[in-house]
Each structure stands twice: as C-alpha cells, then as structure tokens.
Design brief:
Layout (H helix, E strand, L loop, with lengths): L11 H22 L7 H21 L3 H12 L10 H18 L3 H20 L6 H4 L2 E8 L9 H7 E12 L4 E10 L5 H9 L7 E5 L8
Helix pairs in contact: 1-2, 1-4, 1-5, 2-4, 4-5, 7-8
Length: 223
C-alpha cells in the first residue's frame, strides 16, 4: 500500500487509480476540515481539488527536465492576487499540496495518510482545551479617530490608566483626506461592564469622532 504504483512509464490505469485516490481523499479531507475552519465554500472546493492538481503536475513533470522548465515558465506568467488568508486556511492548502506531491509520485498510501491523518489530527486538537489562554481572549482592538489638530500623545493616558489593564500602541494612520488621524491600540479592559464608561471618556477627548472597540486578531489589525 505504501509502495509507488508507478513503473518506468505511467500507464492510463495507474493514472486513473491515482486520480481516484486523490479526488476521493481530497473531498473527504475538505469535508472534515470544514467542521473546524471558517471559510467560504470555494475554499473547500479548492482544497478538495488541489491534491489531484498537484499530483497531475508531478506525474507528468517527474524526470522530464524540459517539461519542468516549461511548466515553471507558465506559472511565472501568472500573477496571483488574493486577500491574505487565515492561519487555518494556509495550513489547509499546504497539507493538500503535500499530499498532492505524494500522490504524484505514486505513493497513494502516504498521500491518503497525510490528508486524512492530518485532517483528523487538526479536528481533534481544535476540540481539545489546549493553547487557550484567557488573557489572549481578553485582547481588544481599539481604534480612535481624532482631528488633525489634536496632539494625541498623552491625551488618552488618564482613561487608559483608569479603565485598562494593559495598552499597547498598534499604529497611527491618517484618514479623511489627511484631515484626521486614526490611532490603534491593543488593549485589555479591567472590567467588561465598564466598556461604555470607557468609550464615553474617550469621546470627551476626541471630539466625539468615531471610536471602535473590536475583538483583536492579527488579521484584523490592519490600519
């Protein structure tokens, strides 16, 4: 089961057997991770097909330098533009690609093991109460819009000391055609019940402009 099914030349029967194994296990893989990864349906469709696509490329390029150079040139002409994915999505794509390499070299057993084994491992680890720290869950992203004329250094120190357990600057950006600034902070409230009082204290100092207090994620923290 863990030996390569390919001989010196790839026969149609061997290729179709590889395609069947890659597609079936890819669909099963995408179905398993769909229970723990929040993504659009298109992501799971792509995840299901990637093992077969990568395996097909590896199958026909394997040992053929000319074909490898031609495919490399073809991919160099393609520009991929997409939004940055989450860590879950990136890991899901990498697992699918790794299994595709195994399938493309004829190692069906290893390809299935990589796909299904890692999908189940990810599913179980995501259910286990590990790597969950209450202090991380308390992090919030605070965004404060202020007028251009306001000197923001130190203006919010008093409400920060009164309502926040910790505060870490996360950047400054101009907005409104340069007429305003947007300050970003990574914060933790001392008491969640005082959220409105905290926002009211900030509004008194920023001229009642927009303030946002959001759950903190690395992906969201983009100025």
């Amino acid at each position: 089961m863990f030996d390569s099914i390919y001989s010196a030349t790839v026969s149609p029967a061997q290729f179709f057997l590889m395609a069947l194994a890659a597609l079936v296990s890819g669909i099963l893989y995408a179905w398993i991770i769909s229970y723990r990864i929040r993504a659009a349906k298109r992501f799971f469709l792509v995840s299901a097909l990637i093992p077969f696509v990568v395996a097909s490329v590896i199958t026909f390029v394997n040992g053929n330098i000319g074909a490898g150079v031609a495919i490399g040139g073809a991919f160099a002409l393609i520009r991929f533009r997409s939004a940055q994915g989450s860590a879950d999505e990136i890991a899901g794509i990498l697992i699918a690609m790794a299994s595709g390499i195994a399938f493309g070299m004829g190692y069906l057993g290893y390809g299935i093991l990589i796909l299904i084994g890692l999908a189940l491992l990810y599913f179980l680890l995501s259910l286990a109460p590990i790597f969950e720290h209450s202090s991380l869950g308390a992090d919030r992203l605070l965004r404060i819009t202020i007028p251009e004329a306001l000197e923001y250094n130190g203006v919010f120190d008093e409400p920060f000391r009164r309502f926040l357990r910790c505060c870490e600057p996360a950047g400054v950006k101009t907005t409104g055609m340069g007429s305003m600034f947007r300050l970003s902070y990574r914060v933790q409230l001392r008491d969640a019940a005082e959220e409105k009082a905290f926002l009211d204290a900030l509004r008194e100092r920023n001229g009642n402009l927009e303030i946002a207090l959001l759950p903190y994620t690395e992906k969201q923290n983009q100025l």
